[in-house]
Amino acid sequence: MFLWIRHCVAEKRGTRNEERGTRNEVDPRSLRTRVEIFRLNRAGMSVVTLQVGQCGSQVGSELLTQLWKDACGSVLGLGSKDREYRETSLERFFSVSSRGESVARAVLVDMEPKAVRASVASARRAGWSYHSHSVFHQQRGSGNNWAYGYGVAGTRWGKDVMAIVRMQVEQCDRLAGFLPILSLAGGTGSGLGSRLTQLLRDEYPKAFIVNHVTWPFNSGEVIVQSYNAMLSLAALHDAADAVLFHENDGLHDACRQHLGLARPALRDLNRLIAQHLATVMQPARPPTLPFYSCDPLGDLAGSLVPSPEFRLVSVQAVPELAEDIRDFTCYLWTSLLRDLTTGSRRCNSMKSPSHPSCVSRLLILRGKDTDSAEYAKLAAPSSFPAWVPPERGLTVWTCSRPLGGHEKSVALLTNELPASLDDSLRRAWDMFGARAYIHQYIEHGVTEDDFLSSFSVLEQVLSSYRHLATSLICDWIS
């Protein structure tokens, strides 16, 4: 009755082994072979990060800095568990140069040089670096036009960027997939980011693609942001395995209420996004494994995405604390989980408890005594549609190692509808009906039929999430 779609990770790994010519050269019955297979299964898989546009460059750079500092913060005197954590984290996101320096498995892409150069300089100050050939930029931006980023920049330079991606992939012993990071508001991140995601899907059909997108302020950052966001989401819905999202309005509120910032800047919002993503992306143990997840993107998508109809995943994490009060904070699982499920931090599905509006959840606990955490509320059957098996509603990953200077921390990923999607789609329809700014998109190859097709895709997404409790089970059974 329930179709839980998982990609065949074992098949992908087997294909890579066959390509290396190792499968038929060993006796599968020997102890050495069994030990080697166990070791290979524990070996971490690498993630190639694509930072597209100004927002993608800034968020990606901050994320990689937090990941690197967390992994390398205490190198001397590492115990076996800490060593495993460090090696898994670094293998996941960094390679080692001939000089012994950490080099990010990342590609920086923007149509203007300023943000890219700033990210490269910031990485060097932090202690790691980008590969010199992994940076691509031009001298002219996309003018906040999705059509220019997708049709013009994507056509002219898509192959060049993919050649850089291929170089990064070839340096991975075992590729887990790709993490494109972009904004939905502008032209380069949304337009070129969407095109690159589609090119990744075409060239690496078995690799996992988990996008992260930043939703613009509802008050408006760009006059055509509703167009850009809808065109992007429709493109990503077909190409990505999952789309993680943060909404700028929620991030702004969190910075004011929890970090004590009267007027948060964009760098504060980017830092908070990176903190949340680091809580998700650093090594953790799924419930069925005695070691860290080898395939982070595959395990994440397999835990959260039951069907191609449901790919949108919100991300929350606690604690969110100003640095000057961390030393005076008492970390308790009860208070952290309460903060995560109440007040302004609540995910959208918890704001309408009368009917199920989320498909699945992934809870990640980091710190001591994770076994003592009480999260029954998150696993309540009433939170999910009736067709979701109880064991599939909530997945829990754990890690005994603290993260980011916090004794304990929690991340919650929820497959649910973004709070802003309905309003953004309505505004896009209103602008399209008035033919506002349509000529700017037609000029660069986007037709009116492309708009209508994108709107139709997102109308179907809205309908699917809104009717979780009723119609979909009949469709899935048939």
TrEMBL record:
Predominant localisation class: other
Chain's role: Acts as a positive regulator of hedgehog signaling and regulates ciliary function.
Similarity field: Belongs to the tubulin family.
PANTHER family per UniProt: TUBULIN (PTHR11588)
Xref: InterPro entries: Delta_tubulin, Tub_FtsZ_C, Tubulin, Tubulin/FtsZ_GTPase_sf, Tubulin_CS, Tubulin_FtsZ_GTPase
Coiled coil regions, renumbered to chain: none
Organism: Eptatretus burgeri (Inshore hagfish)
BP terms from Gene Ontology: cell projection organization; microtubule-based process
Tubulin/FtsZ GTPase domain span: 90-288
Keywords: Cell projection, Cilium biogenesis/degradation, Cytoplasm, Cytoskeleton, GTP-binding, Microtubule, Nucleotide-binding, Nucleus
Subcellular localization(s) per the UniProt record: Cell projection, Cilium; Cytoplasm, Cytoskeleton, Microtubule organizing center, Centrosome, Centriole; Nucleus
Cellular component, GO annotation: centriole; cilium; microtubule; nucleus
Example GO molecular function: GTP binding
Record protein name field: Tubulin delta chain
The keyword Cytoplasm belongs to this UniProt entry's keyword annotation: yes
